[in-house]
Records
---
Amino acid sequence: MFFTYFGYFVAALLLSVILTLAVRKIAIALRIFDIPDDQRKTHKTPVPLLGGIAVYVSFWLVVLYLLMHPIYGIDIFKTKLIGVFIASSILIIMGLVDDVKQLSAKIRLAITAVAALVAILFGIGLEKVTNPLGGGIINLGNFFILAEILIFFWLMGMMYTTKILDGLDGLVGGIATIGAFMILFLTNTAKYFQPNVGLLSAVFAGACLGFLFFNFYPAKIFLGEGGSLFMGFILGILAIIGGGKFATALLVMAIPILDLIRVMAVRVRKKHSIFKGDREHLHFRLVDAGFSQRQAVILLYSVATIFGITTLFLQSRQKLMALAFLVLLMVIINIWLVKKENPL
């Protein structure tokens, strides 16, 4: 099975490298750039956008091949993937339009919500989850509406977390790659063995990593709006179809998710729009505190990797403890940053 995963991982990675180079040339020719503003966009010169298209196309080309040439004994959710494809296409098209002509935050939110609903309508949902307190199984069959609402907010949360993360070079691509690998590893353990989810995770990891070669600091191309949403969407989908592997994705993404919640609370308290961009997010604050872009990104990679690895051997209740520790870590980091920002 390892060689199967590796082969499709490499195929997605090579496709992503080739397509990223091609998309970069197209973006330059069409003059679709992210223009620096010395505030949130601190790159020195205009950087081509549309990188998310390369990740999207490389992922779906390999998945299409898998659908046309199925591997014996591995069912990769054909009907559900049709919905995921339609939903992700909506995100990429919206992102393309936004990169060319900026859409309002409310329109982007509405379209993103539609994409999440499309995935749900095509069968992306939960039938059961592991009880985090007792390790048993909670059957959600009798709580259909509640389960669908949970999935909707999970997908929206994952998409907006990766969208917000896309502030430093390579941050989203690296975190998404780490998350995909963690789901891949977990779904190949004896307890959670799911080769279909593992295969899709390997493909997604390859597509993200191929792009990351050109997006790590100093970035030669950016994801764009659609690309950052797409990465969060697919990572969220993998967690769902992996039988509710929320803990895995959550521990990888915990710091960014907690930071998103904190920033929204700060904006509400200050009576600012929750959609208004600023430098309040953790990755910007780390840079403002003296970290280089590379140092800040590698630090966040390290936290995601360490806590992602814990999902491979911790039980459900222990994962809750790990999440509680991350909340404490977030508080400590925030206190340290406040002291750096307001020295006596």
---
Amino acid sequence: MQSTRDGKKGTLRVLLVAQEAHRSEVKASLASLGDPPLEIGEAAPGIVLRNVAASNPDGPPDVVMVAFNGNEDEALTYLQRATELSPRPVLFALLQERSPGLMKRVLRAGADEMLFLPIDPGDATRALLKISESRRREQRGEGATVVSLTSLIGGTGVTTLAGNLALAMRYTLNKRVATVDLDLQAGALSIFLNADPDKTIMTLAETERKIDSLQLEGALAKHPSGIYLLAAPKRIEDSEMISEVVVGAIVELMRQLFDYVIIDCGTHVDATKVAAWERSDHLIYVLDQSIGSARCAWRFVDLVSRLGLNGLEPKFVLSKFVASHPISEEQLAHTLAQPIYAKVPLEEKVLERAQLSAQDVWQIAPHAAVTRAVEEIARRIEGIAENEGREKSLVSRLLEASRLKMRPA
């Protein structure tokens, strides 16, 4: 079998460990999933896993699935031994019944995931896609982090957040940042950034040869802040000429040239947006405190679930947040069945001043609540803790000093 580490892109190598009488049914269920593509090997529980790995030139499989439909102790032992392999595969336990006692023993033995027989296609697909996405990121190695922002309802501030997030990455984290305006008909990102570039994404759509870095650089406009913009077409009707193939090539090329790629996907779903999402490391859905926004966000959750997107799950950012609003953050989180990733407070006057003065919020209000909120989102995406790199306040330093004095010698 080919290894996902140096072989077929996106293919997971799965070793199914089960009694011979039960293997064919489970294997058929896995083979019918289709996505991600699987290469399935088989082994009996009594076979030493190290010998299986040693006999394969590609080394250990990516996933080991151990079926508990025979000798439970033998299967548990197999799981424990699989944890000792290097590199360690992801371990699945396939259980016939939802026994709390067995489930605890399986987790203690080292299982990463549990599926129940007969295999539910939806559960198996979601679990395997997450692993496939993790492997894909390992293969990619260094390169830009791609962040797509979208919504299904207008007025939530997708473009504002996309532009400000790009600026925060540049100003606060000193990163090389490119922005892509995939809200192709509106073209609002150019307006937000006070830019009127001569060249747009159409330059790349009209080329007859494969897009290269020189062509891409020629289509980009540099903003005074240092970020780069790939603008939407100047004419609305030209948006139909932008294909998902072109978008995919642009994102993959930008990944090689920048630290961050921020994509404004607007509020319209089509093949170009899905192509961007498939190549994204973060998918941010922007909503506000309205019933319509909450309903559309729930519809988006359903869409993402059906699209698969290699295990990518949306992060919900609550824009124009007002603490006293009758629709609270907790109610929205309950409706979406997941927590709100971040909140950006409503500060209309600050944003209005920025637009009227043709400046960004860092120039006119660097310490405003909206500025700090976007900076915090940038830090979270970068993986920096909330207080990391900041000077400790006088109070926190005094408290720390007092605790050190009270600590026994």
